[in-house]
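User: My collaborator sent over this chain with a note saying "see what the structure looks like." That's all I know about it. Can you take a look?
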Amino acid sequence: MTASVDRPGPRREVVTTWYGAFLVEDGRLLGAERVPLEPGALAERIALRREGRLMPEEERILALLADRPAVTSDRRLVPHGLTYDPRARGQIPGADSAPPPVDLQREALRTAAHRALEESWDPSIHIEEAIRAQEDLDRVQNLVSERLTSWIGRDPPDESEGGIFSRAEVDPSLLESRAALQRLVDEIRSTHDRLARAIEETLPRRAPNLSALLGPDLAARLLARAGGLARLSRLPAGTIQVLGAERAFFEHLRGRAPPPRHGLLFLHPRIQSAPRSERGKLARALAGKAAIAARLDASGAPIRPDLRAAFDARATQVRSQRLARRAPPNRR
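Assistant: Without extra context I'll predict from the sequence alone. Here is the result:
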């Protein structure tokens, strides 16, 4: 709710722009802090404003207020003691009202955009693409192999079996085409294996904690599903637990199915080999450790073997509890 700004006394207004901050009182300029007219400095201020943070020039203008009331049309400044007023004109009197040349603003915006792209680029995107390429190759290989198997099954019986098929002939050009199809299947399989080896070599360097905890293949699949290491590091453990089970999760939200206990984490050997009654607990424990591992890797922290040890200890505890419940009571 907008607070009232009809107060007695002079009206002070803080005016913020991409090139500086200004303090105006009843049409008089009391303070001016302009950004250095250099594309790099201007781009830095543009980024700060986009993130909702204060520019250094704005901080100096706010220091001039000395806790005296002032209004602003910039919502970023409201948490810093100013009153938001959408009616604030934002006009700067005097010679300082003239903005820098538009070409300078355009160059600053280009510089800011370039920096934002550099900061947002995640090297793990190549791991994501490798995993997606593997999944595509799996689908293509299954489809072509099925067709090849069907084709081979259409061959006539051997001549030794006798009968009318012993005199049948297959066009050599068709057989050569089928051989080419077989070579394609072999090349797809070979390419898939090369991708797997590349992921196994790369991921321990890019995400050592995740790789040590989950194994390179599962860690890479989790990265691809989350949309990169940076995004995975921001996800809570509960979301990581059901990554890959989105369809089952939405069916649960519609009231058609129970909540999923795990998604891709089911591929972990400890969960896959566990009884159904233990899988949910193990997936929850593994997701918690994976969330920590992702944050460590995103920050460039060294590997922490205790994450794997802690999960193994929890898995052993869950198994012991299950066996204890199944053990017959002692009778004396």
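A starting point for your reply to your collaborator: The beta strands are 12-17, 20-25, 28-34, 71-72, 83-84.
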